[in-house]
Specification:
Radius of gyration: 25 Å
Subcellular location: Cell membrane
Order of helices and strands: EEHHEHEEHEEHHEE
Organism: Terrihalobacillus insolitus
Protein name: histidine kinase
Oligomer: single chain
Bound molecules: adenosine-5'-diphosphate
Number of helices: 6
Structural class: alpha+beta
Length: about 260
C-alpha cells in the first residue's frame, strides 16, 4: 500500500486542509511481475528448441549430412523441435486472443453424450494398444450450450495429458454426472499423479509439475491454461484431484440446459 500525504495551503500559507491518498500498489506490482515472468518464460521456451536445432544443424553442415544413419536422426530432431515451436506459438496466439477478448464462442445446443463418445472415438483410433479407455457415460441425452471446436480443444488437452502421463497398460476413465444445474465431466488416469501443493498450479501458464518429463513428451506447459480459459468462457469451472503414484483426475463443469417444464406458463 502506498500513502501520499499532502497539505493544502490557503492564503497566507496557512494550512487549510490535508489530503491522504492511499493506493493499493500490490495488485499493480503483481500484474507487472507476472508480465515480466511471462516474457521471460516465452523467451526461454523459444530459446530451448532453437539452440537445440542450431547444434543439430551445425553438426549436419559440418559433415553429418553424409552419414546415412545419423543424418535422418538429426533431421528428425530438428523437425520435432520445429513442431514444438509451432505448437507453442499457436498456443500463445490463442491465449493472447483470449486475453484481449478477441474471439467469439459459437455456441450451439449439443447432446454431450454423443459428442463425448465422438471425441473418445478419435483417441481410441490413435492410442497405444495397451491403454484402455473406459467410458462411464449415462445413456440418456444431456444438453449443453457449447462451442464444439473450443470444447474439443479442452478435451483434447485433458485427454492427451492423461495419455501422456499414463503408465503402460493404464486405464483412462471418462465420467459424466448430471448435477442440479450443471454437468460434471471428468477424465481420470492411473499415472504418476500430481502432488497436493502443485494441483492448482498446473492451470497456470508454463507451469509444469515435472519439467524434464513434460519437455520430453513435447508439452508446451500451456494446455491446461488454455483449457481453463475456455471452460470459464463457457461459464464452467475446472480443477484437478490427484493421489501421487495413483493417478490424476481433471474435472470440469458446464451449465446444463434445463428441460422446459410442461404445463407451466
Ligand atoms: P504440458 O504441455 O506440459 O502437458 P499442461 O498445461 O497440459 O502442459 O499441463 C501442465 C502440467 O501439469 C504438466 O507439465 C504436468 O506436470 C501436469 N499434468 C497435467 N496433466 C497431468 C496428468 N494427467 N498426470 C500428471 N501430471 C499432469
Amino acid at each position: 500500500i502506498r500513502a501520499n500525504f499532502s497539505i493544502i495551503l490557503g492564503e497566507n500559507e496557512k494550512t487549510t486542509g490535508f489530503i491522504t491518498v492511499i493506493s493499493d500498489v500490490t495488485e499493480q506490482e503483481k500484474v507487472e511481475r507476472e508480465r515480466k515472468e511471462f516474457v521471460s518464460n516465452v523467451s526461454h521456451e523459444l530459446r530451448t528448441p532453437l539452440t537445440t536445432m542450431r547444434s543439430y544443424l551445425e553438426a549436419l553442415s559440418d559433415g553429418a549430412w553424409k552419414d546415412n544413419e545419423i543424418a535422418p536422426k538429426f533431421l528428425e530432431v530438428t523437425q520435432n523441435e520445429t513442431e514444438r515451436m509451432i505448437r507453442l506459438v499457436n498456443d500463445l496466439l490463442q491465449l493472447s486472443k483470449m486475453d484481449n477478448k478477441d474471439y467469439t464462442l459459437y455456441k450451439e445446443r449439443v447432446n454431450f453424450i454423443s459428442y463425448f463418445h465422438h471425441i473418445i472415438d478419435r483417441f481410441e483410433m490413435n492410442k497405444p494398444e495397451d491403454i484402455v479407455l473406459d467410458r462411464q457415460l449415462p445413456k440418456n441425452d444431456v444438453f449443453v450450450w457449447l462451442d464444439k471446436d473450443k470444447m474439443t480443444q479442452v478435451l483434447d488437452n485433458i485427454i492427451s495429458n492423461a495419455m501422456k502421463y499414463s503408465p503402460e497398460g493404464g486405464t483412462i476413465t471418462f465420467h459424466l454426472k448430471k448435477e442440479k444445474q450443471k454437468l460434471l465431466i471428468s477424465v481420470s488416469d492411473e499415472g504418476m499423479g500430481i502432488s497436493h501443493e502443485k494441483l492448482d498450479k498446473v492451470f497456470d501458464r508454463f507451469y509444469r509439475a515435472d519439467k524434464a518429463r513434460s519437455r520430453k513428451l513435447g508439452g508446451t506447459g500451456l494446455g491446461l491454461a488454455i483449457a481453463k480459459e475456455l471452460v470459464e468462457a463457457h461459464e464452467g469451472k475446472i480443477w484437478a484431484k490427484s493421489k501421487e503414484g495413483k493417478g490424476t483426475t481433471i474435472l470440469f463443469t458446464l451449465p446444463l440446459i434445463q428441460k422446459k417444464r410442461r404445463g407451466v406458463s
